[in-house]
Each structure stands twice: as structure tokens, then as C-alpha cells.
Predict the structure.
Amino acid sequence: MSSRGTPQPARRVMIRRWRSPRLVAGVALVAVATAIGGWTAIAADDGERYWVVREEVRAGDPVDPGQLTTTSARLDGAAAATIVRADAAVDESAVWAHDLPEGALVSTGSWAPSAEAGHELPFPVADGAFPADLGRGDRVDVWAGPGPQQGQAAGEAQRVIASVPVRAVTPSATGGSTTVVVDLGDQTPSAQVVAALSSHHVTVVRRS
């Protein structure tokens, strides 16, 4: 038993950390950040209204207002300048510049002008001479040259069309080849280009 004159050790004040308002707020913020999966936009009733796609869209397809809806969000910095606000008019003559998943915010680069009154050029391509997943909206170069059986004696391959968008990819019903349609814009294909595509082995190269 200790004497009255001996000082007692000071009791340590225990704080239940889970009750700390700052800690609770920090945990809540982490939970929210995890839930939104890295989005820079946080939905809020008092935020700005922005366009989002209500369904998946594909590059090259026409922009349809029915594919769009709006969401309220708060954006900071560069994101606020690149995301399209809902008060911006939808250009129904435009096409989607790249694929977008359902619910994605629409940026200023999401849609592009459609090539009006353009020249569409179809040509057959042998299976294996173009990317297997080639699709509408892809930008490609087209090369024409000797076939696999002709060798170098028949000449070298030449690029006859450069950086044009694909408008359609249609496999042949009998197999072995696919018809690719590209958009040349306002440029008329020359006779040499048409002849090369019809008489030479054609290879389609997608640009990255």
C-alpha cells in the first residue's frame, strides 16, 4: 500500500479513435473515392449539368440525341474545360470520334464532323490482309502490291490511300475476302488508284 505522500502516476486519457470527427470524415472520403472508381466528377444536385451517353456508342456512328442524357457533377481544373456541358447544342450531323461505354461523360473530342458529300470507295481485301477487328470509324492506310505468290519481281507495294476513315466492313458470303469501304472526303479517287485496288494484292493497315 502506498503512502499518502507518494504521488500517484498520472492516468492516461484514452480517446476512442473511432469517435474522432476527423477520422470518421476521413474514412467516409476514402469510401466515396473508392466507390466512384477514380472518377474526377462527384455527382451533386448543385453541380453543373453535363452530357453523358445513356448507352454504348461506336466510333463512326452518327450522333443521336436519344443516346444522350445529363448528369449533375462538379469538375475541377482541365476536366471542366474538356467535358461538354448540357447547355451545349448536340450536332446531329456529327459522328462519334471513338467508342464510349454506357455512362461515360462526353468530352469535346468525343464527336467529330461527318464527311458530307464525300466519296466512298469500296474494294475487296483478302482475309488476313487487314486487322481482324477492323471496324467503322477506324483510320487506315491502304497499300497495293504484288500478291504472296508473285514475289519481288512483280514490284514493290505502294501506299495508294493514306489516313482515311473506314465506313463499312462486309465479309463475303462465300468467305475468303471482305469488302472494305473507306471515305475519301471530297477527293475523287484517281484511275490509277482504282486500277491498283482491283488488280493488285491489297493490304489495309490501321493507324494508331
